[in-house]
């Protein structure tokens, strides 16, 4: 490390201070506001007259655990495809998601479960907090490798708050349906991240281009993320839906949609690939688009065929996006999208919102029977027609895009604050700025690799 | 890539066309035939008078998710032990299983749940489709590295159909019990793959021998597959059994059997290993034989001791098979079995079928009480004696072997079609024929490795 | 391998003989003593008059599977951080845990569920056996790389027996509460391993120091372990608690505690790290301390704030322990703690026991309502005051420390038996002593690396 000037004390203290400040603040807010709900509180639960089998825990906890695995294993390892950024991909995912779980418990709690001056928490708040963490990690994917951990914490602080408000507007004020979050999670997370990345545009990122690729093993680590996201996506979309047929149908639709996006991704990847070869970037990402695209509609009577068609379309659009649109996005719109979240979450999310509006427009009493009450309560109560519900769905998409783009732009300005820990353009996608990094091989492992210094230029 | 002639357009279009054709066909069949069952359909579920807690989803979905993880994470990574075939192992597992889920939904649906001109789907069809995908992946293990993706898709098309018919003959026509699929999944998948590999015998495979081994990290990736298969196997065997004590007992028996196969595998591996050293091939595979061997009998009153004894035997046979029988299989029978599926699925599957017959023969009203109805309904209804049930079990094994060997041989002939994408003998076990492959290390990663051309010789 | 003298036949046969002897003994004991309990036995279950939905399986099996994943995936890969010890970390975890599951089924069965001359097993015994395996793996972490597999089997034999007795004394004789095992699992496992490591102190371990570090990829494998432990820890603590609000609250508290330990670990790691850099050792381990520290108290009315505060404290103590206390432990106390189990399990376990005593002391009828019966039955039945319960909790900690330290010391003496398979001091942390090891790269992979010989010096 000779010749490498030490970071200023301020830079070194930034991350610890932010973590401690944040943890202190949420702890105080938890002490004042957060209480067990009637299913987790010993006194409240035993006061009622119900069987333990009625506890919501048994209906939602297995799905929660699958969602939890997607957020921490899935997103974390999916982003570990970069050759020199695996520690940061997995590690900052861990940090950001941990923070988001606490902070969104508060934000969502104030908006959704604030009664008698207290936020009441249980397995549903755990699922919702994980969903919010998912949106933050989608945005992380857009700026992966170009931001420091302190910047990311500030991004999460802002994004969690806006996520909660947007979700509240859609689900509560507008009566929009979006169980698996095509809008609230995927569209919001993607466009927030893309807007933020636009504001942080780095004209000389070419200097780090040699690190913006995978090596053989890093692609296999990324496939761990892909596969865990893929297998558990049926639980993701079904975790918050109504019990019984609702969860069951949502899981089934998502399962079929993902098989179709996988087939279309393999087909398109080979079709557009050099010499007919498959591209790991497509397989790792676009194959998942089937989960995104049915995020809104999978709880509806989409039909198994509808699920296949939606998944097929999403895989196709997503693969073509990786091949043709991502370069265009950078050259024309100055949006540098490291993980291609526009292709995996952005376009499929918007498609999913449109599909949700379409399926809502087709809702009839005949198709849903008495189940209409649980899927579209406002239609069942004759307070809204199916067409009107569809218009609300479209309006929800519009609102989400506004929140995401304005919010992400504000976030970008915030992250440009000069005292933050942005990496210099020549040291992007590089773990060594933030981590003690061992060598690649046994003989190198005794001493750390040569370490250069982060600038504070943003 | 200078000097490397480009593939003919036909070769390059083969995989995309097959994927698209297949997806188009299943989508049409889904549109015409596949409908939600009464537990996933909003109108049908709410028509009945039941609690949401009664929905089959809550009894089987957690097990389904474990099975799903086994199929995609377990099989995929288990086969990633090869040093240069990780992308294909994980990626083609993904592709084949996605296709098998759709196609077996149709095949199994026509045979098992076709009422009123429609196939009705729910969590049980999801589990059964995953089981069928498991059989396809077992066959994939036999031909791993020696077949192209288009060949594999054709294999899956044929195998899924035969799997469904064989399963129908056994479970429905013959009243054979085989919850965890010692016969229908493991024996069938293994001998189908071995017969197919026999027909595709490559006399000069020696040319690719240097790639038929692991490197340090690829063995650790394979252990991810092993461990996920191992931990979730109790869910695999119990996922389709009768509710209550049936699922509970099946999971418990499988759990004990696996501990015993692990101990015997470690013992035997060190015993036959050079200088007492353990061999990763044994640990990765034979330790799992305990799950295979109780696939038929774990739902029966096998007793915990019986589970230990069965697992111990299976681990022993499997380890010895890897050490002594696999080379013999190639030299004498011209069967090249890349993953040793004969040792992990073939022999333990047959043993499991025999064990199932034995335990069925010992079934008494005393041991099963009123539970006899759920395990052996034909015995409980006095339509069959226990001995007769055992004979039917043995007959089921015979049928399965016939279907597998004849079907696999036909499959081999099909895969020899000259326009398919078989790798040349000097380029087996090599990702670069089918994938864009980055380098192994940072300095190589900027350009792809040298790429040679696949011949179309099969 | 020229020039490498072959091991004596005795050395080579040691591991196989131990495995076979052990498996024979447990099989006999299983045959004589182990029977299905009334929820897994076909006759017994169907004799009663209950719905299948009442079967304990549906309340605990999903949590069991998460615990199972933690034990085999979590612990196994967490210890795979060493550059040349991945096979042993994952493989011996597999072997030890398989053995512990069988053996602790017997030990715990004799102590907890022995009726009518038989041990009765079901999903609760599966969970308890996995817990015991967890304690064994914690101890393994202390001696990782410095012991052979035969030594480890003997350690497990002794430790499982003592674990069962200690647990029996605490939970049954003293009426101590410890659902998630802050005392019975973490404190016991850590101090047993540390005492054992003390007895096996190796003054010249410096000779193997160059292997006592990670490489880039091994740290990512270790993060697989970390993340699976982290996400499933809520299931670990809640798996054995009372149904309903008990499981629900326990999972929720653990979830919050882990988010706080993650934040404090990142803060402290950057604070004490060279130039503000994060250290993977801290992130991989200390971030998990939040799960350990609420092992006793998470089923109590800890409050969400209490969970955050506890997690924060544990992450802080654990990170500082890795930075400052581990070197001190070796230099002053001659305790070589490979994985730092003192920091992850030892100190947070003791803190968790103290926290449990504190929260027990604060238990009131008002806070728990009728739920007091399920959390503190002795207080509810007025057989003990809350203060008295707290004193029993503290006494339980004392007993546990005694059992662990005395037991671990005895274990160390046992493992010093000269005919065992301890590695020489210059070949610690090295897979090649016990495994056939392929090369790191393609060109090396055709032949094994040079292999040297283990001494039998302990």
Automatic annotation (TrEMBL), chains A, B, C:
GO biological process, one term: ammonium homeostasis
GO cellular component: basolateral plasma membrane
Residue spans crossing the bilayer: 67-87, 94-114, 126-145, 152-176, 182-201, 213-233, 253-272, 305-325, 345-369, 390-415
Membrane topology: Multi-pass membrane protein
Any GO molecular function: ammonium channel activity
Residues of the signal peptide: 1-27
UniProt cross-references to Gene3D superfamilies, sorted A to Z: Ammonium transporter AmtB like domains
Reaction(s) the record says it catalyses: methylamine(out) = methylamine(in); NH4(+)(in) = NH4(+)(out); CO2(out) = CO2(in)
Main localization, broad class: membrane
Keyword DNA damage: no
Record note on quaternary structure: Interacts (via C-terminus) with ANK2 and ANK3; required for targeting to the basolateral membrane.
Protein's UniProt name: Ammonium transporter Rh type B
Organism: Hipposideros armiger (Great Himalayan leaf-nosed bat)
Protein's gene: RHBG
């Amino acid at each position: 490390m000779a010749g490498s000037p030490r970071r200023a004390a301020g830079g070194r203290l930034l991350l610890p201070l932010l973590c401690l400040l944040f943890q202190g603040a949420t702890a105080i807010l938890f002490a004042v506001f957060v209480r067990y709900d009637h299913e987790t509180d010993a006194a409240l639960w035993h006061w009622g007259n119900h069987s333990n089998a009625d506890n919501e825990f048994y209906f939602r906890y297995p799905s929660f655990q699958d969602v939890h695995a997607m957020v921490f294993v899935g997103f974390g390892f999916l982003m570990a495809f970069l050759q020199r950024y695996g520690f940061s991909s997995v590690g900052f995912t861990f940090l950001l998601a941990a923070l988001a779980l606490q902070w969104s418990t508060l934000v969502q709690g104030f908006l959704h479960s604030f009664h008698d001056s207290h936020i009441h928490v249980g397995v549903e708040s755990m699922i919702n907090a994980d969903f919010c963490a998912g949106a933050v990690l989608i945005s992380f994917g857009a700026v992966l490798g170009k931001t420091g951990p302190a910047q990311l914490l500030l991004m999460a602080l802002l994004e969690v708050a806006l996520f909660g408000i947007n979700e509240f507007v859609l689900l509560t004020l507008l009566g929009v349906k979006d169980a698996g979050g095509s809008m609230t999670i995927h569209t919001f997370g993607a466009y927030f991240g893309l807007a933020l990345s636009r504001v942080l545009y780095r004209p000389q990122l070419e200097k780090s281009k040699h690190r913006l690729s995978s090596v053989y093993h890093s692609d296999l680590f990324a496939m761990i993320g892909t596969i865990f996201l893929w297998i558990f996506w049926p639980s993701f979309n079904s975790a918050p839906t109504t019990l019984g047929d609702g969860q069951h149908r949502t899981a089934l639709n998502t399962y079929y949609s993902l098989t179709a996006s996988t087939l279309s991704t393999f087909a398109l990847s080979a079709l557009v690939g050099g010499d007919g070869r498959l591209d790991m970037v497509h397989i790792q990402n676009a194959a998942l688009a089937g989960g995104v695209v049915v995020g809104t509609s999978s709880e509806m009577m989409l039909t198994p065929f509808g699920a296949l068609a939606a998944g097929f379309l999403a895989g196709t659009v997503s693969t073509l996006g990786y091949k043709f649109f991502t370069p265009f996005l950078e050259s024309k719109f100055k949006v540098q999208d490291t993980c291609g979240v526009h292709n995996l979450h952005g376009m499929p999310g918007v498609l999913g919102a449109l599909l949700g509006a379409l399926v809502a427009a087709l809702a009839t009493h005949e198709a849903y029977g008495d189940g209409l009450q649980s899927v579209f309560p406002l239609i069942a109560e004759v307070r809204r027609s199916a067409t009107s519900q569809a218009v609300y769905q479209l309006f929800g998409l519009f609102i989400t895009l506004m929140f995401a783009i304005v919010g992400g732009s504000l976030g970008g300005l915030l992250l440009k604050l000069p005292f933050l820990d942005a990496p210099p353009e020549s040291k992007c996608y590089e773990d060594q700025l933030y981590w003690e990094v061992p060598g690649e091989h046994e003989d190198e492992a005794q001493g750390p690799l040569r370490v250069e210094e982060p600038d504070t230029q943003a």
